[in-house]
Amino acid sequence: MIICTTLLLPLYVVLQILIPVISQIITTVCSWVSSVIQVVTQTLSQVCSWLPWPFSTICNWVTTLVTTLQTIWNYICNTIIQTVITIVAWLVSLLIYIVRVICTVINIIIGIPAILLCILRFSPPKRLRVCIKVLTDDNGQSAVTPAAIKQNISRMITSYGECGIEVIVSGIEYIVKPEYLSTTDSSFLSIFSSWHLWFTQRACWCCSEVTVFVVNHIINSGGLTFWGDSWCRVPDGCNTDDSVMAHEVGHILSLWHVNDPNNVMYPHGSPTSHDFTTFQCCLAKRSSFTTYI
Fold first, then answer.
1. Are the beta carbons of 252 and 232 closer than 8 angstroms?
2. Residues 132, 212 contacting (CB under 8 angstroms)
């Protein structure tokens, strides 16, 4: 939907480009000013040692005042300003989430005729762009093997290909982020968490590309997607189940669980969960993430 893209694009620009740039500028300026104050403090301390009393005492008072100003400055930069930036980023992230949910619902409702035509086999092929980001520990290691990632990609391409959806993987990126390897959870309230903000900020570019984040473990879940996000998480279950990635991407495309062990959207691990129904294919084709070009 053009209207949704028009709304989402500036929000993504703010979240993924503007806020990080402003944060980096503030960090640089704060660090520079703090360094200058530190040099001034050191210089004053040296000068004070050369002065006779009572000038040395007065000089020491000035030095103490400058040191106090440095402490206040660092607190403002490192705590107050960074907290404000984080709150603004979180609010923008939440707004993106709300807009996506609303647009998804509207897109499904107005797309009912297109879904019906698709069920009657009147539907051209579409494309789904996916980018994959693998989180690692400090040594660049992930619990999910490269072979498992390759197998999941192959299964995703095959399963969606049978729906007439060509999956295009734009790339695989490795990100050192040990703190989120096994600490994220499945609670819906997590959309208000710092890690949800982090994933949203680092999802691939708006607005018709899906991002798969590969982690080691998700608390109380074998894979998770918050409906309304453009990204999902898949854990080390990928090592034994090649349909995990396709399953979570299906949730992004508004597909829900079904009680068929042969279906990709079967909620439990199954060696045969490789198929989609015609209705699922048509619903996925109606998603704003599947495009004609």
1. yes
2. yes
